[in-house]
Amino acid sequence: MSQRATEQESEITYAQFKALANSIPNLAWMARPDGWIFWYNDRWYEYTGTTPEEMAGWGWQSVHHPDVLPKMLERWTHAIQHGEFFQMIFPLRGADGLYRPFLTRIEPLRENGAIVGWYGTNTDVTEQERDRERLQLLIHELNHRVKNTLATVHSIALHSLRELKQNSVELFENRLLALAAVHDVLTRENWTKARVDELVRTAIAPAGQENFDVSGASVDVCPRIAAALAMTLHELCTNAVRHGSLSAPNGRVAVEWSIDAKARTPKLHLVWRECGGPPIAPPSVKGFGMRLIEKTLASEAGARIAVEFPCEGFRCEMDIPLGVEVLK
What we know:
This protein is of the alpha+beta class. The chain folds into 2 domains: 3-124, Beta-Lactamase (2-Layer Sandwich), CATH 3.30.450; 129-326, Histidine kinase-like ATPase, C-terminal domain (Heat Shock Protein 90, 2-Layer Sandwich). 44% of the residues lie in helices and 24% in strands. The chain has helices spanning 3-23, 42-48, 52-55, 69-82, 126-160, 168-188, 196-204, 223-242, 288-301; strands spanning 27-31, 37-40, 86-93, 99-111, 114-124, 194-195, 212-216, 220-221, 252-260, 267-275, 304-308, 315-321. The strands form 3 sheets. A 5-stranded antiparallel beta sheet has the order 2-1-5-4-3, sandwiched between helices. A hairpin with a 2-residue loop joins strand 4 (99-111) and strand 5. It is elongated and about 95 Å long.
């Protein structure tokens, strides 16, 4: 082959290489054995808004974040001295002045065992880093919720089974089912909120919704309040079936709620009112169910709980503080 043909082939090969390097979405570059960068693809200049003159040699340091640059230089210098592959995620400043994370991979180019150059790529991993941060946040949130759930289960088990009675296992199982039900409601809303009407209807379903008169405003509550409210409603329903109005053929329960938005802290005002049941009186000894009704929302949400035992039927009123962001 003639020298001219060889030169033409080399020119064509280089032209093809440039076309390939400029077509990829990554930033790409090449350096001498000592790390001096002598070539960048067009993507690099487009992203950084720089010129070849500004970037020649070690000029690339100007688009690196000053907080990360020392660590990056330490690792890059080590790779050059030992002829090792380099990989690291660090931010690069764009033409808009914003820093974005890039995965940088640098491979040594060898001929006969000796390093004759380096070629590197920088890949924008902004979305991947955001996904990783979101995943880490979800893991922490899941860990927190699992711990809270286990603490709730432990408390339910401790009090439900402290004094074994004929129905202790049934009570414990039903409380766990109620806890699982509110978790289902929250899962459908991605654990951001729960609708009060859905919590009420879920709690009263085992006792037959036809025995209830339900009415209230459209309002959402946060997961912490939702879990406490659901467990409280479950205990109210259980007590109504076992001892209250729903233990009689014609007994009924009215559940009503409204929002008091005029107070400094908006409140959910919920009333549970029973009628048509057998005569009732305040219990001489409060069981776990009644203690749960009086204390769960108070401790978890700072709610005010008032229970009464008038002759017409049991009555429970709740005033639950709400954040403005949960009002619908």
